[in-house]
Design goal:
Layout (H helix, E strand, L loop, with lengths): L4 E11 L4 E5 L5 H5 L3 E6 L2 E13 L2 E6 L5 H5 L5 E5 H6 L8 H4 L3 E4 L4 E10 L4 E6 L5 E5 L7 E3 L4 E4 L8
Parallel strand pairs: 7-12
Antiparallel strand pairs: 1-2, 1-6, 2-5, 3-4, 3-6, 4-5, 7-8, 8-9, 9-10, 11-12
Length: 171
């Protein structure tokens, strides 16, 4: 089975004249970015591996030096490209209560008594937290804030999520 690639950032521009790149990434992924050792970037639809020499942060961006890139001209060949890791690399860096969105889609949703409530059909965001979109057997959808009080258990191994069905949650 081929290992899936997951995007961890995008090369926005060069930084300085020695081949460092400025990479945008999702806030909260600093630990993952800081520990990068090698990544994949597609150049002309061909996957190429790049070795990471150094990573530092400036404002909301990562400044990365790749062994293979040593000038502004070379940075320009990858500007606008997405930076990928293999899914196994990303998963190994996740904390106990962290999950990849794709691993949650399609999971069975149970209440705390073990009754099937529906399936996870999407994960969304609002300013405060992530939201789990649950599709009930009748096709209706309701949203559950992805917080421990309402989602006490996520078991990707066995394919389900447990939610605390408080009054009015699925209205």
């Amino acid at each position: 089975m081929k290992n899936k690639l997951i995007s961890v950032g995008k090369i926005l521009s060069f930084h300085g004249i020695k081949g460092e790149v400025k990479m945008g990434f999702t806030a909260g992924n600093e630990a993952l970015i800081k520990n990068l050792r090698s990544v994949f970037i597609f150049i002309d639809n061909e996957k190429k591996s790049f070795q990471v020499e150094s990573v530092r942060f400036h404002k909301n961006f990562a400044i990365i030096k790749f062994s293979e890139i040593n000038s502004i001209d070379e940075v320009m060949t990858i500007k606008g490209s997405f930076v990928y890791l293999e899914e196994t690399q990303v998963k190994s860096g996740l904390e106990k209560d962290e999950f990849l969105i794709n691993d949650l889609i399609g999971l069975i949703v149970k209440d705390t008594k073990g009754n099937n409530v529906g399936i996870v059909n999407q994960i969304g965001e609002n300013r405060a937290t992530s939201l789990i979109s649950v599709k009930k057997p009748d096709g209706k959808i309701f949203l559950v804030p992805f917080v421990k009080e309402l989602v006490p258990e996520v078991d990707t191994e066995n394919g389900y999520v447990t939610i605390n069905m408080i009054d009015g949650l699925d209205d």
